[in-house]
Amino acid sequence: MRMTGLKGLAAALALAAIAWAAPVAAQERPEGCLIEIWPDYLGPGQQTHQVRETLTTDAGDIYAIEFGPMAGEYSKKWLFFLVHDGCERKVFLVGSFNYITEMARENGSIGPTERRYHLDLFQPEGHNTLEFRAEVPRYEEMREMALDVLR
């Protein structure tokens, strides 16, 4: 997906931040950017990623990032970044972190080869887990949920 202008710049900033590919001097990034606050949870880790789509809302642009196969301690399926003024201000995450999956296996709520998926909202003031799932959610459902929680 090729983007130009301010939208392309914002997408490039978000991707550069999560990929840690192009470090940006602290004075160039506004305060409260979530990548800097939650780097382990929101960074790509060992996973490949790409922009799946860009959604324009009154609150700002939302970049839907799709990740490759689950890998690493903090595996993600999708991240939805609300970008405003060149900074990710809210993030809706659909992931399957190893420690959460292990807890679910230990308490018997999933089998030994299954994963526990969680839907989280990250904001400058904190993080909330919105729900847990025993199966990979559908993208379309997560897209709608992201639009609801990020506006």
Question: Overview of this structure, please?
Answer:
The chain is an alpha+beta fold and 151 residues long. It has one domain. The protein is built from 5 helices and 6 strands. It has a 6-stranded antiparallel beta sheet. Strand 1 and strand 2 form a beta hairpin. The chain starts with a helix and ends with a helix. The N terminus is likely disordered.
* Principal-axes shape call: globular
In total, how many domains does the architecture comprise? 1
**Poorly predicted segments:** 1-10, 17-27
**Average residue-wise pLDDT:** 84
Which helices and strands occur, and which strands form pairs?
Blueprint: H1 5-19, H2 34-37, H3 39-42, E1 49-57, E2 60-67, E3 74-84, E4 87-97, H4 98-106, E5 117-123, E6 126-133, H5 139-150
Antiparallel strand pairs: 1-2, 2-3, 3-4, 4-5, 5-6
